[in-house]
């Protein structure tokens, strides 16, 4: 069954997920996976749906009927059978917390890229620093690490970066 990756964005209000789910279901689609959030007054997300091959174009067209409520863009996704086998890899979780400053995501992603690691999920945010004032930046990152990777070198690079940025980075 073909899979579509939908990117969605619209002004945040009640009923957006329901409207999208109604269109997917009406075209025999199966909501498989999603990441959805309210960000700066906007509702945004990514949704993976499986849809019968004969209904892909019909579903894609029907999603345009949500214009004005949600902007939906469709992208072809990999079919379940063609997803690479990553059984030899492991996952590492990085949790970062420190004073907010520009460039933190760039610096962390640069280290991960140098080690040829793929980010599976990343959640970031800022919050008020309770005692010191200002903003704290926090990130939760899950990366896929191939079996041949040198996790010791990765940890050393992340520790060095944490010192440079004056943040705490925990690797589990």
From TrEMBL:
Gene3D superfamilies: 3.30.70.260. It comes from the Bacteria. Pfam families: ACT, ACT_6. Residues 93-172 form the ACT domain. PROSITE patterns: ACT. SUPFAM superfamilies: ACT-like. This is Glycine cleavage system protein R.
